[in-house]
Structure formats: structure tokens, C-alpha cells
What we know:
The structure is a homodimer.
Chain A: H1 8-23, H2 30-36, H3 42-48, H4 60-72, H5 80-93, H6 98-111, H7 114-137, H8 142-165, H9 172-187
Helix pairs in contact in A: 1-2, 1-6, 4-5, 4-7, 5-8, 5-9, 6-8, 7-8, 8-9
Keywords (chains A, B): DNA-binding, Transcription, Transcription regulation
Protein name (chains A, B): Transcriptional regulator, TetR family
Organism (chains A, B): Catenulispora acidiphila (strain DSM 44928 / JCM 14897 / NBRC 102108 / NRRL B-24433 / ID139908)
Amino acid sequence: MARWEPNARERLVRSAVELFAEQGYEATTVTEIAERAGGLTKTTFFRHFADKREVLFAGQEIHGRIVAEAIAEAPASATPLEMVGLALDGLASSFTEDRRDIGRKLRTVVAHSAELQERSAAKRAALSETMARALRTHGVSELVADLAADLGVRAFYRAFDQWASSADSRTLVEYVPAVFSELKTAVSVLE
Amino acid sequence: MARWEPNARERLVRSAVELFAEQGYEATTVTEIAERAGGLTKTTFFRHFADKREVLFAGQEIHGRIVAEAIAEAPASATPLEMVGLALDGLASSFTEDRRDIGRKLRTVVAHSAELQERSAAKRAALSETMARALRTHGVSELVADLAADLGVRAFYRAFDQWASSADSRTLVEYVPAVFSELKTAVSVLE
């Protein structure tokens, strides 16, 4: 009978990232990940994730939902980039301090695997597409939505990288505005 | 002894895309691809491509080189988007009419496979990164280069999609300017 394991999902993510960082992604098995997560089983792992790789991209669905909801709730008078700003605030708020260390380790793990880099590129593309779709639903024209979403995703990952590699006490939410503002300034000198 | 096979690479790409479109990507073997390409062998296939998947992304390296060279040769007075425009012209020129049908089939094949979609996302990200790097080498600041490259890659794939799905006699080079111009207009209404 399946036991309910408190925070099993969260523990599995942390244990996977730690093991991948310590001994490599290829060399790590699902059994080891479950074991390190406080004696969980392979069966518990597969209740939460499709495979060893997907444990690293667990946030994709929820991040998409946060972005879509933030844009859906934006005031009708907001410009495309203002809507993107609201989406980024929502997204950044979902990253608690304990994700910073995971983020830092994850970056190194991904940098060492072509397979994980492809999966990462697909995650970014999916986030951009979700953001663009939410913008179009909110009345933004197709091409403007695409560009605004690309800019938003760039801003988010750039802020995330800065946050993950720093050791201060600022939250990710505090990193986002400066980066977003730099990117908006960059838009004005494209041509 | 290895025979020299005229246009083997090109024939393998075409035969792979045809077989994937007819019977599915998963169901197709390297032996079948080589066979359909005018009686080539598996060994010849592996002289050209690392695996069954990579045959679909054969252009990645050469496309990156075309983009980098076009930007390197741009006049110093060119704006970031003017440099991107030159890169897109160079890239589009490399697509001859016979690629249109391959492009159309490839799009369908990729749409049916999560694995190929990931690889496609990685290819787009790599093209954007190559373009951004070339722009930075040519004096464009980091963030401006990133945004200009994102816009350029969007413009290219959008023009490519329009070209691949149409049946007129216009070349890809003729499709690019209108799409690029639409995207540049979209930039001005982001905020």
C-alpha cells in the first residue's frame, strides 16, 4: 500500500540534484535518488516523475501556470511589457531561498550534459510559448506577444543566474526589476 | 574500401525525411535510410551523421557559420538589427528550392516527436547564441545582442514556415524582408 510521504517530491528533487552534482547525471540511478531522499523507494519516485531526467524539470508546468495566471489578471490598460513584468514577479515569488542552492547545482549539472541542455532549451521555449499565448489571450497581437515573451524569458533566466550565483540575502523577486529594466533599455537601441 | 558517393549527405537527408514522414521517426532504421538513398550502406550513413536524429539537424553548423560570417562582414556603421538583416539574407540564400519540400515534411515529423521538438528547440537556441556572439564580437552590447538575435531567429523561422507552406515561386530570400519588417514594427509597441 502506498504510504503518504511528506514532501517526497521536494526531497526527491533535492536529492537528485545533489547526486547528479556529486557523481554525474549518467552515473546516478533512480534507486539512489529515492534512497538519498530519506529512504524512499523507486515506486515513490515514479509516482512523482516520469524518469530520472524529468525530476530536473519538475517546475515546468507550475511555472507556466503562474505566468499564465499573472497575465490573465493584469489590468486591461497594461502594456505588453508591463504584463510580462507581472508574470516575472509571480514567477520569481515562487522561488524560495532553498531553491537558490538547487539552482546553482542544477546549472552545473546541465552544463555537463548535452541531453539536459536540449531539455533546458525546450523548457525555455515552452515557457516563452506559454507567456506569448497568455499575452495573445489578453489582446496582444501575435508578433508583439512573441517578442515580449522572448524578452521576459531572457530577463527571468538572467535574473535567476545572478541570484543563484550570488551569496547575498536578496530574494529572486528583488533581482528581477533591475534585469528587466536593463533589457527594456536594450530594446530602444536595437535599430 | 570506402567508395566516394556523390551527394551522399544530401541524399541521406532527403531519404531520412521522406521515411520519417511516411512511416514515423521511431519506426525508421538507419539501414532503411541508407538503402532508400540509392543503395548506400549504414557505414556511409555513419560517416556523415552521428545517429538517426542528427540527420535532421545537419544544417546547424553550416547555418551558424553563415550567420557569423555575414555579421562579421557587416559595415561598422550598421545597427544591430541591420546586422541581423544581413545574417538572415545570408541564411535564406543557402536554402535552395529543393529544401522547401524537405522543410515541409520535416515540420510534420518534428511535430509528432517530443524528442525532436527538444532537439529543435536546442537548435534554435544555438542559432540565437551564435548570432548574439557574432553581434557582440562586432561591438554590440551583450543584452542588445541577445535581444536582436532572438528577434532574428524568430524572423527566420517565421519566414521559413511561410515559405515551406506556400506553393508560389518566391524564394526564401524573398520571404524574409516582409517578416523581418513586421517584427521590427512589433518592437515599437512593446511598451
